[in-house]
């Protein structure tokens, strides 16, 4: 196994590059996308920046998105744009389902399932859902949380101090 930034015998890039991926293209991490690009793309505001964001997002090249950026985008859409929770979840889900968007460190179906936890009741926050997805995708399958509403489907939620 290659260390950070080193190349394995099969041409992949170890922990930096999708370890275990069969297709060398899938093994490379695509350029990352920042929150402001996602927010401008989803809101269409302001028009000039939204157009620039659309050119970035809609190009054919792959783009990686981190859970930190998705959580921040949800926060900005809710707090600054006053989008309803359902609209935020639907917009982020549609965004991560784009063919050229690659969730960083997560498998797409798990990410989509995590976002779905946030939609119906408002019980699960976007950051908690994304942490759940990271636990599932990484194989950790255990999360310490004091939050009684933390999603526990397929993972163990522990309270260390109980």
Describe this structure in words.
There is one protein chain. With 162 residues, the protein is mainly alpha-helical. The chain has a single domain (31-158), classed as Rossmann fold. The protein is built from seven helices and four strands, in the order αααβααβααββ. It has helices spanning 24-27, 35-43, 47-57, 67-79, 85-96, 108-118, 126-138, and strands at residues 63-65, 101-103, 142-144, 156-158. It has a two-stranded parallel sheet. A two-stranded parallel sheet has the order 3-4. The radius of gyration is 17 Å and the shape is globular. Mean pLDDT is 85; it is low at 1-22.
Q: Mind sketching the topology for me?
A:
Layout: H1 24-27, H2 35-43, H3 47-57, E1 63-65, H4 67-79, H5 85-96, E2 101-103, H6 108-118, H7 126-138, E3 142-144, E4 156-158
Parallel strand pairs: 1-2, 3-4
Helix pairs in contact: 2-3, 2-4, 4-5, 4-7, 5-6, 6-7
How much of the residues is beta strand, in percent?
5-15%
What is the strand arrangement across the widest sheet? Answer: 1-2
CATH A-level architecture: 3-Layer(aba) Sandwich
The first-level CATH class is given as Alpha Beta
SSE class: mainly alpha
**Secondary-structure element sequence?**
HHHEHHEHHEE
Largest sheet: 2 strands, parallel
Q: Tell me, rounded to a whole number, the average pLDDT.
A: 85
Overall geometric form: globular
């Amino acid at each position: 196994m290659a260390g950070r930034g080193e190349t394995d015998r099969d041409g992949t890039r170890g922990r930096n590059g999708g370890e275990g991926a069969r297709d060398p293209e899938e093994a490379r991490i695509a350029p990352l996308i920042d929150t402001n690009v996602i927010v401008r793309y989803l809101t269409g505001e302001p028009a000039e920046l939204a157009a620039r964001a659309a050119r970035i997002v809609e190009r054919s090249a792959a783009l990686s998105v981190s859970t930190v950026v998705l959580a921040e985008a949800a926060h900005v859409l809710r707090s600054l744009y006053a989008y309803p929770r359902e609209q935020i979840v639907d917009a982020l889900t549609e965004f991560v389902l784009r063919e050229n968007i690659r969730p960083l460190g997560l498998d797409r179906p798990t990410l989509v399932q995590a976002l779905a936890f946030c939609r119906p009741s408002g019980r699960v926050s976007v950051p908690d859902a994304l942490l759940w997805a990271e636990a599932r995708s990484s194989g950790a399958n255990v999360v310490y949380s004091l939050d009684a509403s933390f999603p526990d489907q397929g993972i163990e939620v522990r309270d260390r101090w109980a």
